[in-house]
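Q: What structure does this chain adopt?
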Amino acid sequence: MSVISTRHNVNAFVTGTSKPLHGQRLSKVGYKSTKQNPAKYPSICVSVPVIPSNEIISNVDKIVPYVRSMLESAQDGIIRSLYESSGGMLTSIGDDELNIGAILGFLSAEASGDRLTKEGLEEWFKVTMADSLIVVFAEKLGFDLSTPEQEVVVMKHVDVYKDMISSLSGGKTMLGMDKISNIRKAFSLCGLDDEPMVEKLNARLDNIEKKGKEQELMLNL
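A:
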């Protein structure tokens, strides 16, 4: 009879390589080095069990005060975001901009922004999307990729999407509605709608789209 250990190994964290065990999540503790200050410790990771939903529910009365504090902090963040995106001209905020749905969208976008880097997204794109988009553009252009010239043309189109997606790592990135739509379509064409990373990127796109509409509204005098 196998015994499930309640102890979990601490391992060195390697970007793009470290993964959680099946059914678990990867907890990461990272440290960065600068020219002036070397990292205090090496970065590590631990594969740990996901907290069961029934345990959360059974302790909800004890958790609520902490959750309320987190939600109120998120509301403050939403207000700051709306104020800054209005160029300091914000005069009112609706309940629909501060309700639970809005808060969840904000938290999701913030969480995505904290974990997304340009280099990481470029690597993710290379591994996950590039090959599929090469096929998509080759078919669209009627190419069989039999010549270097055809490959160069196709890769130019693929690189456009790589650059758009990697730009989502920036907190101040703004994209037109057509580009947002094309990125979402690319996710679907590559069969990535249910990928965790795509959920994060879609949350970022939702946030960019919302800010774009707010700016457009402010410009329409």
